[in-house]
Amino acid sequence: MHTLLLKLGLRFDDPHDEKRFVRQFTLDDLGRTQAAMVLGAFVYCSFSAMDWILSPDAWAVATAIRLGVALLVLLPATLLLTRPGARPFAERIYLVYCVVPGCMLSVIYVFLRPSFDHGAAGMIVVILFVSTLLPLRVPSFAIFAVLTWTCFALFETIATHDNPGLTLVNNAEIGAAYALSLYGVGAREFRARRQFRTTQDLQVETERSEAALAELRAAQAHLVQAEKLAALGQLVAGVAHEINTPIGLALTTSTAFDHHLGELRRSVAAGQISRSQLTRSVEQLSEGTRLIFSNLTRAADLVQNFKQVAVDQAIEDRRRFDVRDWLVELMSTLGPLLRRKGHEVRLACAEGIVLDSYPGALAQVVSNLALNAVLHAYPDGRTGTLAIDVTRLDEARIRIVFRDDGRGIPEENRLRIFDPFFTTRRDKGSTGLGLHIVYNLVTSTLQGRIELESGEEQGTAVTIELPVAVA
Fold it and tell me: Which residues belong to any copy of the Histidine kinase domain (predicted)?
């Protein structure tokens, strides 16, 4: 039987899956099933009216049997399913609920005369109810069919008949009803099993996809962080290169300063210093002091600006800031890198534009756009001009336009330019996350929108509209 059910698709190989399916199948929509069971008890008792029509003298006994079955079996079985501890035995409860009234119906027909001549109709009603309204599987329904049909045939042999030929007709009709109902129950169970298997497979694939997505997000987060660190690393290299100049000049000047001071000290010690020599020495020392001061001030400003930009990019704090002053600080850190590669930077920003937003995210956006332009817009050592224009659209919005006059973006790449991991220079170490980070920061963190326009050998313009105050 087990092998047959497997071949028919009415059983699972895995006992764990079989147990889960049976529990789900028998308890699915339990409230509806219990309502059907109450309705079945009512219909079972209401057929006492038919008993009165068939045999008024035996009506009291028949009605007592029907009420006894309803009160002692049908309704208690229905109530028993409300207890969580009884639900693992739900199919057995359903079987008792079906078999007892089915067998007792044959007992009732013994008292009604000539009841078995009309017994097929009552049994078919019971079969119809069991096969359509209760979640019985094929084995359970087969048990129900064997027990109730055996009981019907047994009691039919001891009953009186006005027409003995109806015995064959009754059993043929009941047998046909059992066969059709068995097929219906089997088809319903087969569909339920197939749906269960599909759901299980879908759940497994969903879990696998979620696990893969989690890994992908972790990898993307790692790459995004690496991209940020790489961008910051380029800023560090540019700032370090730029700081070398004023510090080197200051060091050279201080060396000359020390030399002139030594000569002046020796002249004073020898008592051979003239007014013109003293004047010249003072002028030289004064010029050296000015050069040292200006170069060290320049280096300090670079360090301070870089420190502010680095802090802004590392800490996602919201604060109010003047866009023009902030942009000057940012470009003082980006400028060395851009100028070292021969590029010119032009800024145009009206005074008095103040944002209540995230300067770190905005710095990351501008930095990525600048570094992306340097890397992609000017290949083979070409140089050009990068322009940043900031204007106020209204009281609530500003517009930032970042332009380059580089080679532009091919048409086939424009629609994919903000896609994660899309790059045309993967062989050069690009990850394809720079502009994807820009898009996410603008649309999510900064709550704005971004558009890109470009043409081959016509440069690229990235337009960003931002709210003055993020929500």
Answer: 238-470
Residue 314, pLDDT score: 47
Tokens of 327: 């942009």
Contacts of 74 (CB under 8 A, 6+ apart): 37, 40, 41, 44, 97, 100, 101
pLDDT tens by residue, 87-112: 999 999 999 999 999 999 988 888 88
- Cβ atoms of 218 and 422 closer than 8 Å: no
pTM over 0.70: no
The 344-349 sheet, strands edge to edge: 344-349, 385-392, 397-404, 460-467, 449-454
The closest alpha carbon to 66, from 22, 28, 103, 101, belongs to: 101
Instruction: Report the largest interatomic distance among the alpha carbons of the chain, rounded to a whole angstrom.
Output: 159
Q: Judge contact between 384 and 343, C-beta under 8 A.
A: yes
Cβ atoms of 233 and 314 closer than 8 Å: no
State the pLDDT at residue 142: 93
Residue 41 φ then ψ, to 5°: -65, -40
How many whole angstroms separate alpha carbon 156 and alpha carbon 4? 33
Dist CA 104 CA 109 (whole Å):
9
CB 115 within 8 A of CB 159: yes
- At 48-74, the pLDDT tens digits run 888 888 788 888 999 999 999 999 999
Instruction: Record the tokens describing residue 227, joined without a space.
Output: 């991209």
225 compared with 374, residue with greater pLDDT: 374
Running DSSP on this structure, what letter comes out for residue 376? Answer: I
SS3 track for 134-169: CCCCHHHHHHHHHHHHHHHHHHHHCCCCCCCCHHHH
Supply the pLDDT for residue 312: 47
Rg of the chain (C-alpha set): 45
Q: Which residues pair with 344 in a beta bridge?
A: 385
- Which conformational region is residue 345 in: left (phi greater than 0), alpha (psi within -120 to 50 degrees), or beta? beta
Say how far apart CA 392 and CA 169 lie, in whole Å: 93
The CA-atom distances, in angstroms, between 178 and each of 8, 40, 143, 170, 172 are: 19, 18, 11, 12, 10
Q: Is the dihedral of CA 380, 383, 384, 390 positive or negative?
A: positive
Token pair listed for 225: 């962080």
The single residue listed with the structure tokens 């931002």 is: 466
The residues near 429 (Cβ < 8 Å, ≥ 6 apart) are none
Q: Which three-class secondary structure state does DSSP give residue 378?
A: coil
Domains and CATH numbers, the chain: 2-210 (no CATH), 317-471 (3.30.565.10)
Tokens of 471: 């929500």
